[in-house]
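Quick illustration, no need to memorize.
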Amino acid sequence: MDPIARFMEYAAAFEDVYKSDDWQALESYFTETAVYELVGADAFAARHEGRDAVFAALKTALDSFDRRFETRELDFLKGPELREGAVWFRWRGSYRSPGLPELVIEGQERIWLEGDRIQRMVDDIPLEIGHISQYWFSQYGARLG
């Protein structure tokens, strides 16, 4: 299967999981030994090894960040495209809740597939985005759900 088409299938399935919280729906998209890394901004930096650990990290991120906002909008700024054996894209997340300023974060992601399953995902979040997010949460985080 075309890696970009498979990634787009995964992205759609991930949005379904965002709504349902049914992580088993993503099992067919990841190898059992999948790795998820967040690099760049210290506030986000982490490495998770194994499909269960990857799912736990993604769920924690959604529960502690995305789901605290009333709405979130994710956009591709560039890509997805193949670069050096990985599906690469630049993204933007816009997070909104009534009475609060919008929080916008950007980064880039690379995804390596083994067959039609994700073996490794790396999110690169620039240092300045980490600072912006930390400042935003220090000022407004207590007012989120």
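Strands lie at 30-40, 46-49, 71-83, 86-96, 103-114, 117-125.
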